[in-house]
Here is the input.
Amino acid sequence: MPPKFKFTRDEIIEAALTIVRQGGWPALTTRSLADALNASARPIYSYFGSMAEVEEAVVKKTVDLLYRCMIRKETGDPWHDHGIGYVLFAMEERALFRAVNDERHIPLFKTYGDAIWETLTASLKDYPPFIGLSAEQVYRIQLHRWLFAHGMAFSASNPPPDTWTKDKIVAAMQEGSQAIYHGLRQQFQSPP
Here is the structure.
């Protein structure tokens, strides 16, 4: 009978997440993970076929944490809150945000992030400012706002000193979201 391990898959993922949170991907090795678990590498490889699988689990867990930030009620306006949550996550979880946006992990971040996009877009189906707009128009508004939020998130994840505070992020995201919404809405109503 194979030995029972004292760690679960989730505990291994949490330990790996903590390592990446503290030192980025270079800090996550089989040895560092085994040390964090106070174990050998055997429990890790009983649940994961490779460290690449551990990294994928860390990206998925990071996206889950991002989603929880994006649905927090900051202003009471869900669309604004989604963008604010995205930027606040980048500020609060700098190392994780940068880790999932590096060249090697961005494809995984996009794959898991697409599920967030779909879920949050569906949650806005009765959002009053979007009523009367076509799906394509809502998509364009969402896309432009995401590009704005993503740029702010990168700035917030690596800011010069005293650049971003939560209040500044909330204000900038609300102002930027409104500008994008009203600008595109006006464009949709103008004849070509």
In short: The longest helix spans residues 166-189.
